[in-house]
Amino acid sequence: MKTLIDSLKEKINQRDKNELKRTLKTYSGSIDFFSNDYLGFAKNDELHYKILNHWIKNPQLLHGSTGSRLISGNSEYIIETEKYIAREHNVESALLFPSGYNANLALFSSILQKNDLILVDENVHRSIYDGCKLSFAKKWKFKHNDIIHLERLLKKSSEKCFIAVESLYSMDGDFAPIEELCVLAKKYNAVLIIDEAHAFGVLGYGITHQKKLQNKIFTTIVTYGKALGIHGAAILGNKELIEYLINFASPFIYSTAQPNTQVSSIKIAYEYLKNRPYLSQKLNENIQYFKSKCHNLSSDYRSPIQIIELNNKEDYKQIQKDFIQQNIQTFTVLPPTVKKERIRICIHAYNTRKEIDKLCKIINQYV
Question: What is the edge-to-edge ordering of all strands in the sheet holding 342-346?
Fold first, then answer.
């Protein structure tokens, strides 16, 4: 009789056979064209010393949180930081979470009800799918960035409708048509939710803030593990939403609170970002330089995420060998994460033109 371990091994071996097996690796000393550290904050010594000095002056921040926020884990420091984040984004309230995944799980699992319908762009992050799965709502997918298809589904529906998109798609490098989505949501009285994980810091505080659309979007999610180089996330919206999440979002209610060390890092990183607009300008310059050298990629000219799609598996293997030979790190994204295999290139503010030239010389041999 087959044991559970045998079944697990069988699934792992099948994934390995299909060349889809995931393994944990470490990287050091290579040219970074694969991390989400768009502005270089994760490796920024100046920022880190600011955080460290703040902890030295306030050693009580190093205390453990001791429990969930509804029991012993809340603090005035967290409350004040959430008020600060809300003011920065020009919204009523904010609620902190330890990660973007956790925030989406909390939001979608609690806000969607049994008779609701959630319409998700087919390319949204897995955390949104998993949050929807934990709810009792019905879920329909619409074709990526296809407003016409979305409207067709809205016309067909009779339920209360929610629409979920990313502002900048992490595996495609393109942007959602947010202003058109706002118009459509208003027309059909739908609730619009925007995940700003990859736009935050790259385009100011995200597209919602940049275009002053806060009053047209029900809620946005911003995460701090990408451009801000820290860890954590916040759900932004009106005070009723935040109060509802505190009362009904299981991932918030039953998780140990973030420690004040993490929360203080977020606030200091916000100030660092606000006072250094030249970093996002440098990132944009590098993106434009990359696009001037690699003309044939489909990703948006404003996006730090650029996608390479090739014709066959052998080309993928060979181009990766070429990258490794030149000490360049990129990331190949495989199904089921995406429908079609692709190489994901991330441009950063700290990449040099010499590094970008080296990268593009290889890409142009294949694209």
Answer: 305-308, 342-346, 331-333
Report the relative pairing of strands 219-223 and 233-237 from DSSP bridges: antiparallel
In tens, the pLDDT along 243-300 reads 999 999 999 999 999 999 999 999 999 999 999 999 999 999 999 999 999 988 889 9
Identify the band that residue 42 occupies on the pLDDT scale cut at 50, 70 and 90: very high
State pLDDT tens for residues 97-155: 999 999 999 999 999 999 999 999 999 999 999 999 999 899 999 999 999 999 999 99
Task: Flag whether pLDDT at 28 surpasses 80.
Answer: no
DSSP state letter for 168:
B
Distance CA 191, CA 169 (A): 20
Residues 6 or more apart from 125 whose CB is under 8 A from it? 100, 104, 166, 170, 195, 197
CA 220 – CA 340 distance, rounded (Å): 28
The DSSP annotation for 315-333 comes to HHHHHHHHHHHTTEE-EEE
Q: Which two tokens stand for residue 246?
A: 């505190």
Q: What is the pLDDT of residue 26?
A: 81
Give me the pLDDT at residue 338, please.
Answer: 86
CB 68 within 8 A of CB 253: yes
Which of 314-321's residues contact partners 24+ apart within 8 Å by CB, and which partners?
A: 315/366, 316/341, 316/343, 318/366, 319/343, 319/362, 319/363, 319/365, 319/366
Six-digit token string for 257: 């609170």
Which region, left, alpha or beta, applies to residue 229 given φ > 0 means left and ψ of -120 to 50 means alpha?
Answer: left
Per-residue pLDDT reduced to its tens digit, 307-321: 999 988 889 989 999
